[in-house]
Specification:
Blueprint: H1 14-21, E1 26-30, E2 36-37, E3 52-56, E4 60-68, E5 77-83, E6 88-92, E7 106-113, E8 119-125
Antiparallel strand pairs: 1-2, 1-3, 4-5, 4-7, 5-6, 7-8
Amino acid sequence: MSQTPAPSANPEIQPYFEALRDGKLLIKACTQCRQPHFYPRAGCPFCFSDTTEWLESRGTGTIYAYSVLQAAKDLPVLAYVTLDEGPTLMTSIVDSPPSALSNGAAVRLVVRPGADGALAPMFTLI
């Protein structure tokens, strides 16, 4: 069990956690430069505008890179997944044999509790 406390849902990111409970992934997009970004935050990391909006991700993407953690019992595959909308997020690959993984492989969203017990976006091979 992790010693790191679960993230708290402050009002700025409350919709993100509510969507995870419904099995959905929300990302943010800037209303000025239109760039989507992850992790969700009020300010745009590209143009520094403070006007962003929530977008529901399609929940599909591709593995950018991954690492199999041989000593881990739970969540043994750590990966960067690039969503079809563009942002890349650090996540876990679940329900997929590590031998079947490859960079560029298509994945879809599953929502599971992380090591801290909080719901987190994870992915499985399509």
